[in-house]
């Protein structure tokens, strides 16, 4: 659905955005970029490349350096070290007005003394384009954002969503090589935000230029982006597609920041011998390596070894709520199935799914059950029932322990503090529901 | 409804004193000035009985257009120079740290702590042929020893700019402080150079401050009388000097009133025209049609 590369993509005026002979893979490149403010490292040796036509998100909590990185690309900040290249050209030392990038600001920054029409035309007028061309281009943009009849209004006469669209048009009309979006939806209310998400995605599909999207909202990043760079304290913590980042987080910070997860704090016991595994029925599991985890107050848990983990290491076992199953009866014994017995503390019925919180020892485990069958035929699980929570060892992953600093960054809601359950409040959707 | 009515009555009571003030001390005296223009003068400096058009006839004296013209251009020049100097100043003051800002603000209002007259006499001393400034300029070679810095229109302009400058800086600074400087970034992002961003985004953004500065400088300048009297000469008289002369020397009050009325009308008529044009939106529409 999204153009893989905008290289030959034609849009609006019908001219190619980029030369076809440019290497597509390294369209926008940050090389070892650092920026300090006093003793604070805003951006700490960041290197990343963005492909042409890509919808790329910089995601992280406030103060992680994502906006600084964006401002470095826009030219508002000079990096202390490192280079920024755009389409093969080094733009590090260029002033903002000589860069072929345009920004959509969080505050929109529409010029209050100009009409919608004049706001959109601003960049073209500055570039001294012929009047006739300006009129045509602005008219096309007004059609794109569906505001033809509001062209003569001033910014204070239009709604927040409309301001947002004018800001998009004002940037896009200049045909930037990269469109920079600095938390563009943060100022909108939830409903409008969801609508603008869809519109942004449509616009991206239509114009086919590279979008660099800065946000602290994992839901926005997940639903829009081709790739996400999760940032923390000025560094890129993980870079990958939304699926990769969600399914295989590289650190407990990423696991907790993107979506909800359950953490079990434990110590790695001896790795499971092949002979143990062989006793299982599934032949596919034979060549896999599993670890056993000793968790205080619980029975040992099994987890797939996706990385080198040594015996005796302190780790977190992370399992997404939707990967868990909840049942009244003890699940049938299967190899590599973890099962814990507990008591239901909370139930939230959400129509398509139900969220359960199950108390097992010191842990409050969050489980999501999708309702794929007619629910009224069964007797639903209620408060204070004794239940079994189970999951396959393949669905969990072991991560290094979450530091106190991480906890502050993610800001657990007060009632969850002190319990090893990462519950991310930044986004409404625990699962990546692609809007596209 | 009762509460709303009570609030309205209260609003009226609160605004009444200022209305009374304006009416008694501004509108009625202004109308009296207009009325006295059409009264005959008495030889003892009083106002005679009956009505006459004598004053209007004397106003057609060929000396007056020249003086009025000089008054207008000196005031326009003063206003222009003040705004030209005050705008970068206001921009600068809005951008510096709050601590430095209050220091600069203090420096701007510092001259008010000294008497207006004393400051003008200080300029007279500076510009005097034996004065420090004159000596310095001659020493540097910027000024010939026999040129006079005093008693000409240049001296009047210089001292007027000096006295009116704070009245331009303060409103422009107040507007700049409220200006959203992210708009400058947005303009640069859209390809504007710093100067272009300043001109096309910052200046329109502080237009209320600029307009206030214009009114605060231009109107007092038109009526200035002490400055041209002290540092000006016979070739740099302004309408204020003439009004004073008619009042104190000639003791011809109707004549002075006529000149005052003329000055008032010169300022009021163009302003009323501009304001009514703006209100109908004619100016805005013309600008939009031009594609500005």
Structure in words:
- The complex is a heterodimer of chains A (436) and B (292).
- By secondary structure, chain A is α+β, with helices and mostly antiparallel strands.
- The model of chain A is unreliable at 1-24, 274-287 and 412-436 (pLDDT under 50).
- Chain A has 2 domains: 10-247, Rossmann fold (3-Layer(aba) Sandwich); 252-416, RNA polymerase II/Efflux pump adaptor protein, barrel-sandwich hybrid domain (OB fold (Dihydrolipoamide Acetyltransferase, E2P), Beta Barrel).
- Chain A has a 6-stranded mixed beta sheet with strand order 8-9-10-5-11-12, sandwiched between helices. Chain A has a 5-stranded antiparallel beta sheet with strand order 15-14-13-16-22. In chain A, strands 17-21-18-19-20 form a 5-stranded antiparallel beta sheet, with no helix packed on it.
- In chain A, 42% of the residues are buried.
- Helices cover 22% and strands 31% of the residues of chain A.
- Chain A has helices at residues 66-74, 116-126, 131-144, 160-172, 190-207, 218-224, 242-247, 252-257, 274-278, 404-410; strands spanning 10-11, 15-16, 28-37, 40-50, 55-59, 81-86, 89-90, 101-104, 178-182, 210-215, 227-232, 235-240, 262-271, 290-295, 301-304, 314-319, 325-327, 337-349, 353-360, 363-370, 386-392, 397-399.
- Chain B is mainly α.
- Chain B has one domain (37-290): MetI-like (MetI-like fold), CATH 1.10.3720.10.
- Chain B has helices at residues 2-36, 54-59, 63-95, 98-109, 116-127, 132-140, 153-178, 182-189, 194-205, 207-222, 226-231, 239-249, 253-280, 282-290.
- The radius of gyration of chain B is 24 Å and the shape is globular.
- Chain B starts with a helix and ends with a helix.
- Mean pLDDT of chain B is 87; it is low at 287-292.
- At the A-B interface, β8 and α2 of A face α8 and α9 of B.
The coarse overall form of chain B would be globular
Mean pLDDT reading of chain A: 81
User: How much strand of chain B?
Assistant: under 5%
Quick one: biggest sheet of chain B? none
Structural class of chain A: alpha+beta
Structural classification of chain B = mainly alpha
The CATH superfamily of chain B is known as MetI-like
Please report the two chains with the greatest interface, counting residues with C-beta closer than 8 angstroms to the partner's C-beta: A-B, 27 and 20 residues
Total beta-strand segments of chain A: 22
- The CATH architecture classification of the largest domain in chain A is 3-Layer(aba) Sandwich
Radius of gyration of chain A: 25 Å
How are the strands ordered across the major sheet of chain A? 8-9-10-5-11-12
Helix content of chain A: 10-25%
Q: Would you state the CATH class of the largest domain in chain A?
A: Alpha Beta
- What do we call the CATH topology of the largest domain in chain A? Rossmann fold
Which runs of chain B of at least 5 residues are low in confidence (pLDDT < 50)? Answer: 287-292
- Indicate the overall shape of chain A: globular
CATH class of chain B: Mainly Alpha
